[in-house]
Amino acid sequence: MSSSSNVFALIKSMNKQEKRYFKLFATSYTNERENTYTLLFDVLDKMADYDKEEVARKTAGSITRGNLAKARHKLNRLILNSLAAYHSASSCSAELRELLAHIEVLYTKGQYKHCRKLINNARRKACECEKFTVLLEIAEWERALLLQEMPDSLQDDIVAVNQSIRETVHTIDTIAGYRTDLDNVFASIHRDLGQSARASESSGPTRTNRKKSLSLKTADAVSLALMREQHRAYTAWHDRDLPEALDAFGKATALWDARPALAADQSAVFHRDLTNYLSCCIALKRFAEVPPLLNKIKAIPIRSPEQEVNMFKRISYLELGYSLNVGDLDRGRTAVRTIEKGLMRFGDRIDPFLRLSMHHNCSILYFICGQYSDALQHLIEIEHQPRHELRRDLQEFTRIFNLIVHFELNNHDIVANMFRSASRYLSKRATFGSFEKVSLRNIKKLLNCPDRQAAQKVFATFRSELLQISKATASFTEPLGYMEVLFWIEGKRLGESTSRIYSEAIRRRNNGEPALIS
After folding, report:
1. How far apart are CA 234 and CA 363, in angstroms?
2. DSSP state at residue 314
3. CA distance 230 to 362
4. Entry pTM
5. List of residues 6+ apart from 289 with CB closer than 8 A
6. Nearest Cα to Cα of residue 312 among 283, 353, 346, 266
7. Using 50, 70 and 90 to split pLDDT, how confident is the model at 409?
8. Cα 48 to the chain's mean position, in Å?
């Protein structure tokens, strides 16, 4: 990306408040209400796509072509300075950067008493947020100040400062080791999500038990304890040991709660841990723990566009999953509307794997609620997504699901054409199994039923054959969509809505009873 495109992209990433602050910040450099920088800023801000020639034409009266590159460079620097000033109190890191800059100014001006006060404030802030690299810099300023002031206790004070530096360096080194281990776990998870490798081909992350020969300061560092629990949680997650992951995420959450300043400063990491904790709760059917966790996550301030995307990706998807798991279809519909708006707004910033899963869950919710046209829109999106091998199971089920939705919409001619295509597609897949065969066979029969009585017989047979699949093997694993199709069949057989059958089945399942009575 060229430097001119960089400035344009930076402006497009700014919100209204940041843009307003920039205007005030830029005009403080001149007595004029509008200067070269604000003029160029406005031209770039109003453009939908960057056009170098258009910029030159619209700024010709104030900036010559020869000076345009220089003006863009100065504008870029001015915007970054204004953003730094605007966000100076938005995080612990930003506050510390400002404090260190002020400490340097005061030291240079010989204002040592004032400088000492800011050093103490900075040390307290850095300790709260466990910014150990900043603590090193603060210690260097303390040492420099001591050598300038030359107090009677100089020797003892210098020894204390140097001991603090050694302890902090040791802490940083220990944290770096834990961070390496944790990053290796993330790399393993990312690799396995990005390929269709079998579990047996995947080398799992290394379980590291580091010796706890740590100094008192290091042992008391919450960030160290956090990384220990995070490493345990994500290693267990990778190994599919969800109870272990749940326990580790729970302990990590308690550590975050014990240090609010650290949680506020590392809000993105805090958000990531909480959402994965939430995922474990849903997967292990610990539904009572979900609403408080959702509220806790939603209370985390959003500080960047990237964090806003991550909040959407994680929360809306999990909220829909929770709604489906507890049978709260009204809450599910609200979650679906949020997902639909987010998919339109964020587009390609959502990775294909998650985008497919979102469309799938939205289609399931609409299908259960009898909103077949809405379900069809999401099925079309799934079919049109590139890289179909990302979710082969989902792509295969969509073929069956599409037939049922079009059948409900009375598009029988379309179903007949799609039936032949689905049969050809599924017959080529290695996973083409009993569920798909039974579904195709009975959907074909339904298309040829002369009346409702004949259809009822087919639904009864359809139900019986699907239930028989689960009884045929002790190690039966429900194929994707198996239960949803059963709920639909049950509703047709009993003359009830799928939503009522679904809600009753979920209630029974969550009470430890069979979801469907054989």
Report:
1. 30
2. I
3. 31
4. 0.73
5. 281
6. 346
7. very high
8. 28
